[in-house]
Design a protein that fits this description.
Elements (H helix, E strand, L loop, with lengths): L3 H13 L6 H5 L8 H18 L6 H10 L4 H4 L4 H4 L6 H13 L6 H13 L3 H25 L6 H4 L7 H14 L2 H4 L1
């Protein structure tokens, strides 16, 4: 028998992502920044596009499920921006998010399957997990580019100072083209 309460709790945690701001954008003064749910859609969509471009075969269902789940713990932990990670003990972010996943999935019969996807993503040893990581970063860089164009903000320069290296050459090519289109001192600085 299905535990309706557990399923409703799970849905509520997912819904919380619609109200959880992407903290990094808030810190950089972006007005009306995307929430975690919007970013999660961007990752799912980007992963779906990348899956069509890479030469290595990937399990599309697994890829999309992993992409959809990648930030689910933030429904409890909130979005901890990358610059803050340097102040945290090594591995603590993953440990805290793992605990959040366990709590979020409590009582749902498919919890082991979803935890397997989440653990695979964090182990970062498979083509699927690498593609989700590439999609996650590519969505972030695309959003930074769009926000800079929309707002003229110079507070996004840090995204372009050091070139990023992707797992898949197709993702790298998209990033390199996006970076080259910036054409301002942010890339040169």
């Amino acid at each position: 028998m299905m535990d309706i309460t557990a399923v409703l709790n799970l849905l509520t945690h997912g819904n919380q992502l619609k109200r959880t701001a992407r903290t990094g954008w808030v810190q950089r003064g972006i007005p009306n920044p995307e929430d975690v749910a919007a970013h999660s859609f961007g990752v799912v969509y980007t992963a779906m596009v990348l899956a069509q471009l890479v030469t290595e075969p990937v399990d599309l269902a697994r890829l999309l499920a992993m992409a959809a789940l990648h930030d689910l713990p933030e429904g409890l932990t909130t979005d901890i921006p990358t610059p803050a990670w340097r102040f945290l003990p090594a591995g603590i972010k993953t440990d805290v998010e793992r605990g959040a996943m366990v709590e979020i999935l409590d009582g749902v019969p498919f919890a082991p399957d979803w935890m397997d996807l989440w653990e695979e993503l964090h182990a970062a040893e498979t083509a699927v997990s690498h593609l989700v990581h590439d999609a996650d970063k590519l969505d972030m860089f695309l959003q930074a580019h769009i926000y800079a164009a929309q707002t003229g903000s110079r507070r996004l320069t840090e995204f372009w100072r050091k070139p990023y290296r992707f797992h898949f050459p197709q993702a790298q090519a998209i990033y390199d083209e996006l970076r080259s289109r910036r054409g301002d001192e942010e890339v040169k600085g």
